[in-house]
Amino acid sequence: MAKQFEGPILPFLRLDAAAALPKFRQVQDQLRMAILRGHLRAGTRLPASRILAEELGLSRQTLVRVLENLKAEGYLEARQGAGTFVSAALPRQLPKPRFTPAEGDIPPRLSRIGALSRALSANIGRMEQKPFLPNQPALDCFPFAVWRKCWNAATRGGRAAMGYGDVAGELMLRQRIAEYLALHRRDPCDPEQIVITPGGHAAFTLAALALADPGDGIWFEDPGPVTTSNLFRTLGLTLCPVDVDAEGMNVAGAMARHPDARLAFVMPSRHHPLGVTLSLPRRLALLEWARANDTWIIEDDYDSEFRYDGAPLPSMRSIDSNGRVIYAGSFSKALYPGIRIGYLVLPPPLVGTFRNLSGLIHRSVPVETQLALAEFIGGGHFASHLRRMRGLYAERRAAFQEAGRVALAGLARIDCSESGLNALAWLEKSGDRTAHRVVLDAGLQCYPLSDYTIATPRPSALILGYAGVPAERMKPYLGRFAEALSRS
């Protein structure tokens, strides 16, 4: 008897008694439109005609007529003994009409943050997995079987993982992160100093909201990641661009030009996109500026795990004796971007504020994912995975450099930093935005450096990710890349 209740609930079906259109036509048109818009996908089973008739207050005979008409049009199909389904012959993803505002439409009334985010729209979200996509780890080598075992072990308790979690994150995960930081980053902390966030950007958002008011200045490396700069702008902060050279952020220049800034956002272990590291004298100068001016440093420990010449560099937080550094880390590059787990390590006086704010904004990060990650780290799998990936990425980096020097001779100069997942191709002739377009047309991916530039112009370059490309594919892909550049 339970089979009669199978099928989706269809809340979009609405009958208008005052409409001139007959009721069967209203239902028929609404079902057809739901299929065309992808709300009902190919292969979806519809509720039985008797159930639909009862829900809509129509006769079963009327609903049978509707379904028969849609079968005749090719939208539905009957399967003997199983019911009525959206036709399997239809593509699972039907083309959707492009939305274009009608001429004369009045823009909606938005908040200040809404208006800023509309004006600063960026390419955020799913990116096509094409060769040389920047910041892309080797998903083909992720230990899925081990991760699945960790997930099963973590969720064996059933309901324990189904409720709301601690607003600061599950204690077991915070303990594992603290152990990892002490052992691998030479940066011990108490698990109570850690707040788990849904990714790195959520960590930056918490820091900006807790420590600065709209209009306050934030030092930001130029060039720097465009989505992060737009995030701070949208939150109402005044972006203070700071030049980057071979020693990283020009701290002296920032102090001279923007002495009253409230925050500094810095990537000391590996700057993105230039790949440089912040020198020790500049680290100390930045820490002293923060102490003397009662300001704060947001340390984005970007790609710190993947250093190919020696051990990972110590964090800035590890040499901060005055509690001015808010350390932000994530697992997007070390594991996979979709895991959406980041974390903050906070000076003790800030912990209560950040916990409360995180609870108000995020409530909690999915508990199951946190527990699985804790199991993965605690079982030694995270350290093993990092060790394997360092070796793999070093191999892919070497293959990229070797093939790039040959394929791109006269077109671009390859620049691979000693850490991270990306490289720069400094262009000899064409502009990077023009080159970017032809590279995309060739079925490859990259980002133009000019998109990252805020105030200080840079020579044209493209940002390429080599970590997600197998070493044996580097030569043919770089050959295609070179052909594209020669046409730009």
Describe this structure in words.
The protein has 488 residues and is of the alpha/beta class. The protein folds into three domains: 74 residues, Arc Repressor Mutant, subunit A; 242 residues, Aspartate Aminotransferase, domain 2 (3-Layer(aba) Sandwich), CATH 3.40.640.10; 103 residues, Aspartate Aminotransferase, domain 1 (Alpha-Beta Complex), CATH 3.90.1150.10. Strand 4, helix 8 and strand 5 form a beta-alpha-beta unit. It is globular and about 80 Å long. The mean pLDDT is 90.
Order of helices and strands: HHHEEHHHEHEHEEHEHEEEHHHEEHEEH
Q: CATH class of the largest domain, anyone?
A: Alpha Beta
Helical coverage, percent range: 25-40%
Shape, principal axes of CA atoms: globular
Q: Uncertain runs with pLDDT below 50, 5 residues or more? A: none
- Tally of extended strands? 14
Q: Average pLDDT across residues?
A: 90
From the N-terminal CA to the C-terminal CA, the straight-line distance is: 66 Å
* SS element count, helices: 15
Largest sheet: 8 strands, mixed
